[in-house]
Amino acid sequence: MKKFLTLSLLFVAALGFAQEEETSKLSVSGSVDAYYQTYLTAPDNEGVGFGTAFAGKSGFALGMANLIVSYEGEKAGAVLDLVTGPRGAGATFNTDIVDGIVNQAYVYWNVSESTTLTFGRWNTFLGYEVIAPAANFNYSCSYLFSSGPFSHMGLKADFALSDDWSLMLAVTNPWDTNDVSMTGEYALGAQLGFYGQYLNLYYDSGKHGGLGFEIDYTGGFDLSDSFFLGINAAYNDNDGAGFYGAALYPQVATCDSFSIGLRGEYFALHGDGDDLPSVFATTLTGSYTVDNLIIKPEVRLDALTNVDSGEFYGKFLDNDGMPSESLAAFTLAAIYSF
């Protein structure tokens, strides 16, 4: 009888453990990317570049490697996203560190089927593009994405209002203050979603290098089975000055393994004075997939207006090393996701 009771207890414990395994899930994912870049209208010198985030080197260069470990329980879970390499360092503002960078680290609680609370550090809800290159169609980044926040440190609540409507509310440290708030100030964020279209709002005081106020629309439409049009538009104001712009992302899938897409972006500064600098940037990207490997050839041309020095965030030169109002580059990137 004692043996029978012991075996029964072991069976119940094993059954409980198996049930816990069924309701919990540990997953590992990530990506690795590298690229080659040469300027078509300027020498491949240090300091020449578009001035947008990431992929700012000429010659052969490393993008980033990231490892995402997530654990999902029945009601709660956690995510740890580690990055290394220049892209990861730039995304977290640790530009002198190349190893052991935390991109995201957060815990979440599914309070109900329609409500989730997230606490920690998570990538921004603003903009069309993201940090990880595997999730972007274009390898280089836009001015709109580069000018906004990359991540937030704080608490957010996501609400599924219906099958089509969603709402997110957040309170965080000020813009790109990824660790602590040393000023006693905080930022507010909100996102209203409807069937794949998102209206995003962000506000901080604008002091101490803050972003101020930004309104952002991100969305897109499947115009056919093979043609998608992405859209991003934003307006930012920080004490009477800031930026605004819009970008279109038409993408066509020619077959299961190859797509081609264009990013056309207009980006300008606003504030005191007339004829402030602006730029029109055109990026043509091909995307060829082999298993989990994505190969992206890309040609980009940026043209400045109201800029005499050839400098607008980046530094534009011609082949003679003189200031120029345009800059073109060819990039070949390889991204592996797992």
What is the secondary structure topology, with strand pairs?
Layout: H1 2-23, E1 25-39, E2 59-72, E3 76-84, H2 86-91, E4 101-112, E5 115-123, H3 143-147, E6 151-160, E7 165-172, E8 187-194, E9 197-203, E10 213-222, E11 227-237, E12 242-253, E13 258-270, E14 278-290, E15 293-305, E16 311-312, E17 314-315, E18 326-337
Antiparallel strand pairs: 1-2, 1-18, 2-3, 3-4, 4-5, 5-6, 6-7, 7-8, 8-9, 9-10, 10-11, 11-12, 12-13, 13-14, 14-15, 15-18, 16-17
Signal peptide: 1-18
InterPro entries: BBP2
Pfam family, one: BBP2
Structure description:
This protein is mainly beta. It has one domain (24-337): Porin. The protein has helices at 2-23, 86-91, 143-147; strands spanning 25-39, 59-72, 76-84, 101-112, 115-123, 151-160, 165-172, 187-194, 197-203, 213-222, 227-237, 242-253, 258-270, 278-290, 293-305, 311-312, 314-315, 326-337. The protein has a 16-stranded antiparallel β-barrel. The termini are far apart. The relative contact order is 0.14. Mean pLDDT is 90; it is low at 1-20.
Strand order in the largest sheet: 1-2-3-4-5-6-7-8-9-10-11-12-13-14-15-18
Reading the helices and strands in chain order gives: HEEEHEEHEEEEEEEEEEEEE
Number of strands: 18
Number of helical segments?
Answer: 3
Average pLDDT level: 90
CATH superfamily annotation: Porin
Gross morphology is globular
Head-to-tail CA distance between termini: 51 Å
- Uncertain residue segments: 1-20
CATH architecture: Beta Barrel
CATH C-level: Mainly Beta
Fill in the CATH topology.
Porin
Strand content: over 45%
Largest sheet: 16 strands, antiparallel, barrel
Tally of discrete structural domains: 1
Binned, the helix content reads under 10%
Q: Which value, in Å, is the CA radius of gyration? A: 23 Å
Query: What structural category arises from helix and sheet content?
Result: mainly beta
